[in-house]
Structure formats: structure tokens, C-alpha cells
Amino acid sequence: MEGLMSFQAQSVRAVSREQSSVPLPTFSSKITRVSVQPIGMVRNSKLFNSFVASVQPVEASAVTPFDNTLPSKVLDVWQNASAVCFDVDSTVCIDEGIDEFAEFCGAGKAVAEWTARAMNGSVPFEDALAARLSLINPSLSQLQDFLKRPPRLSPGIDLLVKKLKDKKKDVYLVSGGFRQMINPVASILGIPLENIFANQMLFGSNGESAGFDKNEPTSRSGGKPTAVQQIKKAHGYKSVVMIGDGATDLEARMPGGADLFICYGGVQLRESVAAKADWLVFNFKDLINSLENWELTAPFRGCKIQVPTKFVVGDLDATYNVPGTKEYIHNGGFKKEVPNWQEGVVMEEVAHFINQEKPDEINAHIYDFIQRF
Question: Is 337 in the same domain as 210?
Fold first, then answer.
């Protein structure tokens, strides 16, 4: 979302929704010139209703969640977590592994429909898993041939896992997918195989499909919460974070389970899941930045934008049209974080990069704003 005008000492560059999720607030005591700054999506309350003005670092946006009552709560849990559990399909990897395997075996369309229903929480997970495996009906040789294809990792996940390990945080893969497909992913990322909680395909003596191991906790609804609870209890972790894209990942946030759920929307954005997340991100670089920069920015957590401010946004901006955003901006939520907000402008037929799409109009808005002082 483009266009927060305020007196700041630092220039910024625009960042698209694909590049980042939540920019980091920067504050200046000197009134030197006007800068145009993006607005990012942050800590969720009911929908996506908490935003904060920001300035971009050089490489990507650093992230800080912003809650009206406890601004540092989500960030503190993330930064101080003892362990982080990742979903695999559409999170660590850009594919849904079972869908790719189904396509390889000639049952792609039917299986993908079941996957979508399972990830949105509309059917019990164990029913969806059994139905998909029955449709695929794979042989052991088919699985072995499929596994010759290298897994496709989401951009930045290798760097994020490395950063977490450097910070002495344990990393787990908790998935409703199959262990046979996840083992290679763990090996690439340097995650111990014993840190995988996933399902197991079973085969008969002649290599024919024999279903799956129903004793695995992730083979049924409520399985991910059970797995995270087991992880937390077994190792005595003080706090655990779950990162994923689906309803089963959201379920892991519960007493005794995950203390924080971060919805990753970089591959699939499931609105029903994102709406209930503690934090929505589109880029793993944001999570990396939050681990790198939090000590330096700690004094600014909870700060409000106190300088005179004019907000300009395009009506076609994807972030502006996320459910809950308009209500937050126009019904008083934004004003709480930017108490000296003096004017809001919604430009018609403009998307994210309004300073490039309509430079003359933006310059006029900036000049008009400066003239008031």
C-alpha cells in the first residue's frame, strides 16, 4: 500500500505485496522533508485490522507485528521462541507434495480438489488423506521414481532455517504430507530426521499400496496440535511457533501447543486461515529481518507516529483491499497509531505504485501538504 506522507529524515522505496508483508516503523525527531512510505499488513485482531507506517531497509522489509493493546507481544514470542515448527507443503516447499505425486501418477485433478477441502478445514483431515491416497493408489516403484525429482523449496526458507539454527532455536517439520517426500527436504535444510512429524505411506510385499500408518498423529484432524504438544512437552520448550498456510496449521495454536501461529501466504493465501492468524507474512525475508534487527528496534516498539501525516492510497492496491483494511483505516483504527493524521486520500484507478502511476498528482498532494506548515 503506497502513500503515507509524513515529515521524516529518511527516504524510502516502494515495496510490493509480493516482496514483503510488514514494514518496520522508523521514527525521526528532525523535520527535514516529506517522504512517501508504504503501509504494510501486520498483527491480526479480527481480520487484518492492524497496520503501521513504515520505512523499508535496503534489501527487504523488516517485520514487526503491531497490536493496539500489546504491540510487542507477537514479536516477542517469535524472537524468544525455543522452537519453530514448519508446515511443509505450500510453506517450506512451493508445491503440495501429495498433489504433485497425484499428478505424476495420473490422478492430479481429483486429488487437488480433496487437498483444497482439507486445507480449508471443510472436511476431516483423515477422510481427505484416505480419499487422496485411494485415488492415487501408488506403487512403491512409482514413489521411488517420483522421488528422483528434487523438492522445490520456497524462496528464503533455507536462509530462515539457518538463521533460526544460528539463534539456537530448534526447527521441526510438522506435516500432513508423507515422510518419504519430506526426508529429502529435511536433508537439504539440515533438519534432523527425528525432527520430522509426518505420515508414512505403507506398501505390501509386492510394492502395492497398503494405505498409511494411522498411528501417526498427523494422519488425522487435530494431529498437528498433538504433534506440537508432544514436541513442547518432550523438550520442555518455553514457547513454540507454528508457521504454515492451512487450517491444520492454525489448529496447532492452542494451550500446551504452539504459542503463536504465523500464516505464510507466499504460495497459497487461504483467507479463512489468515484471518485468524497472529501474523501474516508473504516473504521469509521478513522473518529473517525480524530476527536480525529486533534488538536495535526494541526501543521503538509500541511507538506511535506523532508527526503530521497525510495518507494516500490507490483504490486498486491489493493491500488496501484485504478484508478489514478499509475498516481499520477509515473507522478510527489507523488514527490510534497515527494520532496526528490530518488527511486521507483514496486515488481512483490506481494500484500499488501510485508515485509511479500518477507522479503529478502525488507531487501535488505532497506540495499541498507542505504548504500547510
Answer: no
